[in-house]
């Protein structure tokens, strides 16, 4: 492995989902988890995902992650990682001592916040729910894009948190018969500052992703042409200075208080933006493509983003490449695309964790991956 690669050496789950205890070790390359539906393969990916910021690969409540009927206390996830050549110990668990369950994450023995997690562990994931990303609601595409943004620019995670809190506070204030105008001014300023930063970070990520896509010849995964649709993104694209965009958005929020109060929500801002894509080879909007082609397009986007991040890590402009969590990524692909996926992942520094119901899905990895058969609470090494 390269010195600036990031990978999991050992993962231990305790009372997590259907696993009383599970331990997996890796050599640092891809890890392929094989087993029937319900064996707990996706649960392993979810455990890895909660070591980063956010609610994890399923977006589930913490209480749902604890093993049903567990008699050994709340769940725990522990990982020994190699990040840029240094050992990193991460742990996540459920704290039941307060009024409500809360996640506790520790980094090398000390409590860690979302910003530290985002900088320490760069996560990108694909799930079957994203197979029709471009035919589904815009909110799913925003969340997908923002995960790519945070993986490349961890500091942007703070902007999203600030924006969401201000958005809720503005809605609460507008519900009052006589909203506090001065406090609304403060909250709307926060919305404008964070919203403009979010839009700018999205533009940077999409532009770099598009450059990576354009730089490669057509391969087994189709190329795409990306576009951002949104109020703030459009103004920034026009070359309007960020400070002016922020002021204009703040003014618009003030003017639209009555409309937004009637609607019960803020109707303008980066929380309404959308990511569009065109299948370059077919000249067709991605949302009109078949499910298989949409899955191939999204997989191609994730691989392109991982390549770009790996290149930035090699140049020293970024700490490390992302950890890829690919749930049923090879399902419904023909042999050519399965082999192409394996070839791409073997070339990337760092690590991908994949799930599948049959070992044959991972033949393209040869002996380059660690393969395990997963059952509740146990794993067994396999050879492709």
Describe this entry's structure for a reader:
- It is a single chain.
- With 384 residues, this protein is of the alpha/beta class.
- The protein has eleven helices and 15 strands.
- The protein has helices at 41-49, 62-65, 114-120, 138-152, 156-174, 181-215, 231-237, 242-255, 257-263, 291-315, 335-347; strands at 6-16, 19-25, 31-34, 76-83, 86-95, 102-107, 110-111, 123-126, 224-229, 274-279, 284-285, 323-326, 351-356, 370-375, 378-382.
- Strand 1 and strand 2 (19-25) form a beta hairpin.
- It is globular.
- The mean pLDDT is 91.
Which class of secondary structure composition applies to the elements?
Answer: alpha/beta
Shape: globular
Q: Report the sheet-strand fraction.
A: 15-25%
| Helix-strand string | EEEHHEEEEHEHHHEHHHEEHEHEEE
> What's the pLDDT, averaged over the residues?
91
User: How many beta-strand segments?
Assistant: 15
Runs with pLDDT <50, length 5+? none
State the distance separating the first and last CA atoms: 21 Å
Largest sheet, spatial ordering of strands: 2-1-4-5-6-7
Query: Helix proportion of residues, in percent?
Result: 40-55%
Rg of Cα set:
22 Å
Question: Largest beta sheet, briefly?
Answer: 6 strands, antiparallel
Q: What's the helix count?
A: 11
């Amino acid at each position: 492995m390269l010195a600036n690669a990031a990978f999991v050496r050992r993962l231990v789950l305790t009372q997590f989902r259907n696993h009383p205890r599970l331990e997996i070790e890796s050599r640092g390359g891809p890890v392929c988890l094989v087993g029937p539906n319900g064996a707990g393969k996706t649960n392993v990916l979810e455990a890895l995902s909660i070591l980063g910021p956010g609610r994890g690969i399923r977006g589930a409540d913490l209480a749902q992650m604890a093993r049903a009927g567990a008699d050994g206390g709340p769940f725990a996830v522990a990982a020994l990682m190699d990040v840029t050549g240094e050992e990193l110990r991460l742990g996540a668990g459920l704290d039941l001592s307060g009024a409500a369950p809360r996640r506790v994450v520790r980094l090398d023995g000390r409590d860690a916040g979302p910003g530290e997690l985002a900088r320490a562990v760069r996560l990108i994931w694909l799930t079957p729910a994203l197979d029709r990303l471009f035919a589904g609601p815009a909110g799913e595409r925003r969340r997908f894009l923002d995960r790519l943004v945070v993986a490349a620019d961890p500091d942007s995670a703070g902007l999203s948190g600030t924006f969401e809190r201000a958005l809720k506070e503005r809605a609460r204030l507008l519900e009052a018969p006589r909203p506090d105008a001065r406090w609304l001014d403060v909250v709307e300023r926060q919305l404008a500052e964070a919203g403009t930063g979010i839009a700018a970070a999205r533009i940077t990520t999409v532009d770099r992703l598009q450059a990576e896509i354009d730089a490669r010849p057509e391969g087994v995964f189709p190329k795409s042409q990306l576009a951002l649709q949104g109020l703030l993104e459009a103004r920034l694209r026009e070359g309007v200075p960020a400070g002016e965009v922020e002021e204009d958005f703040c003014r618009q929020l003030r003017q639209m208080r009555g409309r937004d109060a009637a609607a019960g929500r803020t109707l303008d801002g980066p929380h309404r933006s959308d990511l569009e894509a065109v299948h370059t080879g077919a000249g067709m909007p991605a949302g009109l493509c078949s499910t298989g082609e949409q899955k191939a397009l999204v997989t191609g986007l994730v691989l392109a983003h991982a390549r770009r991040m790996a290149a930035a890590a090699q140049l020293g402009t970024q700490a490390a490449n992302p950890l890829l969590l690919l749930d049923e990524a090879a399902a419904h692909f023909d042999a050519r695309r399965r082999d192409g996926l394996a070839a791409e992942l073997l070339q990337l520094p760092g690590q991908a964790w994949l799930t599948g119901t049959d070992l044959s899905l991972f033949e393209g990895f040869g002996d380059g991956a660690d393969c395990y058969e997963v059952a509740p609470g146990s794993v067994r090494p396999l050879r492709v």
